[in-house]
Amino acid sequence: MHRLVLEVRTQHLDSLVSKRIVELVDKLVQAGQPTAQAEPAAPTFQVGDKVVLNSGGPVMTVTSLVGYDGNLVCEWANGEETDHSCFPPAVLVRAGTVHNPIRP
């Protein structure tokens, strides 16, 4: 019985909190105040895409998508050999994209 009372009380409190949050967001919107915005998603790439680092560097080819964290394996020419490394998508842009990083 005690467990049931706690469950009902928790559901009731959750409902009250949710309603209050909706009320506050509605007031902010009506007042013209900006609400929290999600950060823009990192760009998505596919195997075979040509990319460069945000900070510049050689054109690289995405050769595979790695693991749950979304990192990409990229390969590039280094003289007569090739190199490769893993990069998070947020540090890459598509090759040919105009990008002017801010440098200190």
From TrEMBL:
InterPro entries named in the record: DUF2158
Domain of life of the native organism: Bacteria
Name used for this protein in its record: DUF2158 domain-containing protein
Species per Swiss-Prot/TrEMBL record: Massilia mucilaginosa
